[in-house]
Write a structure and sequence with these properties.
By secondary structure, the chain is an alpha/beta fold. The chain contains twelve helices and twelve strands.
């Protein structure tokens, strides 16, 4: 991979692609996870992103077992998340100070390390005052259990409130925001991207391939066994529409012209968007990950970038665009 990038205003230097682990411990078993991490490190990557809710802690346990088996802790920038809670199968949030600090301790135990390099608030909690939530960050950083902190899935105004409050009280500034971002989901460009750029937060896109749709594997239809899956319909179905189909066709055309795969073209476009530090690529299999990493240093020619910009351009208006 190309040179490292600084994450926001922090001291963290990360590779231009991070490795996501949402499938580890569930559809990706331990041996497959180990193979993925070996391939990622071999490609020059160093940012490993996980969360306490991935596989109900199994993703973190998998990482902990890899550390226990000899994986050098210093080889990785480890990022995890707290505040996400699953209740009756549905995601919600608990960003109270007490819960967050207990959750961080549990994550460190599963990960087999005494600190994480980046601790992220997985979701905004409207029930808890933001100052209480940020107190947990200050405590974690003061104790050395977290070196830096960021937010995840925050709206633009929520990102600004959290980042400004940290500065106002002379606490360590937030380093990052992790949000869904791809050619199929550019909504963050309206308010999150401007907030992050103005406040010095690096952007870590999740689902950089539009939840798999930008790979073009659903270009000619969805396999019957997948179409009948409740999870598939909820997670991927939102990107199976006429607009997405038009975008995928242009991605496939651009990729064909350049002699690369749609995956490589889509990731190259996203990697070099304003404010983006490292898209988080995740995969169920080693082969899928290797396809993403194959184009780690590929750069889109300007004319092709403009084609992708145009076909995926999000609707903007008042108040984002002045009148």
């Amino acid at each position: 991979m190309r040179e490292s990038r600084r994450l926001g205003r922090s001291d963290l230097l990360v590779s231009p692609f991070g490795l996501g682990t949402s499938t580890w411990g569930t559809t990706t078993d331990h041996d497959a996870a180990a193979s993925q991490l070996d391939a990622y490190l071999e490609a020059g990557g160093n940012l490993l992103d996980t969360a306490d809710v991935y596989g109900d802690g199994e993703a973190e346990r998998t990482i902990g077992r890899l550390f226990g088996a000899g994986l050098p802790r210093e080889a990785l920038v480890v990022a995890t998340k707290s505040a996400g809670v699953i209740v009756d199968g549905r995601p919600t949030a608990d960003a109270s100070r007490g819960y967050l600090l207990k959750a961080l301790d549990a994550s460190l135990s599963r990960l087999g390390t005494d600190h994480v390099d980046l601790w992220q608030l997985h979701a905004w909690d409207k029930k808890v005052p933001i100052d209480e939530t940020l107190e947990a960050i200050d405590t974690a950083i003061a104790s050395g259990k977290a070196r830096n902190a960021g937010v995840c899935n925050y709206a633009g105004w929520q990102t600004a409130v959290a980042a400004v409050r940290q500065v106002d009280k002379n606490s360590q500034p937030l380093a990052s925001t992790q949000v869904e971002y791809s050619l199929l989901e550019r909504g963050i460009e309206r308010e999150v991207v401007p907030a992050a750029k103005n406040l010095g937060l690096g952007i870590l896109p999740w689902a950089p391939l539009g939840r798999g749709v930008l790979s073009a594997k659903y270009r000619h239809g969805v396999p019957e066994e997948r179409a009948g899956s409740r999870f598939f319909n909820w997670y991927v179905g939102r990107h199976l529409n006429d607009r997405a189909a038009r975008i995928v066709e242009v991605v496939a055309s651009v990729a064909d012209e350049l002699g690369v795969t749609p995956v490589v073209a889509s990731l190259a476009w996203l990697r070099d968007r304003p404010g983006v530090v490292a898209p988080l690529v995740g995969a169920r299999t080693l082969e899928q990950l290797e396809e993403s990493l194959a184009g780690a240093d590929f750069c889109l020619p300007e004319e092709h970038r403009l084609k992708l910009d145009e076909v995926s351009r999000p609707r903007r208006g008042y108040p984002e665009v002045s009148i």
